[in-house]
Amino acid sequence: MSCMLAVANPKGGVGKTTTTINLGAAFAEKGRKVLLIDFDPQGHLTVGCGLEGTYTSSDFDLAGLLLKGDVDRIKTLITRVENFWVMPAHRSLIRLEDELVVQRAGEYRLKKVLESFSADFEFCLIDSSPVINVLTDNVLLAAKKVLVPIQAEDTSIRGVVALETEISELKDILDADIEIVAIIPNMVTTNSVSARVLANLRGKQSGETSEVQEIRRPALVTDFQIRKRVDLAKAWHEGKSIFNYNPRCDAIESYRKLADFLEGKVSNL
Fold first, then answer.
1. Torsion angle, alpha carbons of 59, 93, 108, 65, to 10
2. Which of 157, 162, 254, 259 could form a disulfide bond with 26, CB atoms 3.0-4.6 angstroms apart?
3. CA angle at 42 for the pair 179 and 62, rounded to the nearest 5°
4. How many alpha carbons lie under 13 Å from residue 157 in its C-beta half-sphere?
5. Which CATH code of 3.40.50.720, 1.25.10.10, 3.40.50.150, 3.40.50.300 fits the domain covering 3-264?
6. What percent of the chain has pLDDT over 70?
7. pTM recorded for the entire structure
8. Strand-pair partners of 84
9. Nearby residues of 86 by Cβ (< 8 Å), 6 or more positions away
10. What is the pLDDT of residue 113?
């Protein structure tokens, strides 16, 4: 049975795409068959996997294929990269939001398409837009399980609050079974802000902001983090995972820990 996981946070710049790519590489290293799905109209995951030409191609209209439910054509776009597979984004997704808003059950379009081939993979990781909109709803409803990368800064916390609010509304309005399975501190530095925010999120410090109080979920916040490393940005620029770009980077061990952690979480759900 395939495990589908959304990687989401409506706060931009938290390393969502980098997390998706390198978590996928970590699962693949463990021998898992992994599909990465780029459902962000900006196509950062697609570019970060070396598929920029696909994103800008004039040979196909991904938005149109999704609206028609042309699964066979979409499946031909799935490309092997390193030791995992990628369903790339396309610039046509930029107009998809307006189309889905007026479509009946438009928020379920991605779910219906992925149901036809997601079972071919053990893990499907979906990179979402850094906003709350119908495209993000599509990702949440398709995956049902959510990993939230969070930068250890005060401003990043507001994104988690917005995400939890959206999940709550989808549960109430559509009776959707969606849950956050983990919050991973990402791009962590050694400064005092990172240390304070991490302590607050894990419930180890009092006097936190109201935003931290609202999302405090000590059981969801991992006891390890992914540190900020220049090589992670360089790897994305080269269209590679960090495993391929620099096998000596210490961030690799964090992604391995995250893969192990999530495997344990999923097996217990």
1. -10
2. 259
3. 90
4. 22
5. 3.40.50.300
6. 91
7. 0.91
8. 81
9. 35, 36, 37, 38, 45, 46, 49, 51, 78, 79, 80
10. 93
* 3-state secondary structure labels for all residues of 102-142: HCCCHHHHHHHHHCCCHHHCCEEEEECCCCCCHHHHHHHHH
Residue at token pair 């994305």: 236
Whether the per-residue pLDDT at 215 is higher than 80: the answer is no
Type of residue at 68 = K
* Closest C-alpha to 128, from 39, 228, 30: 39
263 or 103, which is more confident: 263
Q: What tokens does 221 get? A: 């916040």
Element counts in the chain: helices (H) and strands (E): 14, 7
Q: In this structure, which amino acid lies at residue 194?
A: S
Domain segments of the chain: what residues? 3-264
> Hey, what's the torsion of the CAs at 16, 119, 121, 116, to 10 degrees?
-70
pLDDT (mean) for 219-247: 94
Nearest of 49, 32, 31 to residue 40 by alpha carbon = 49
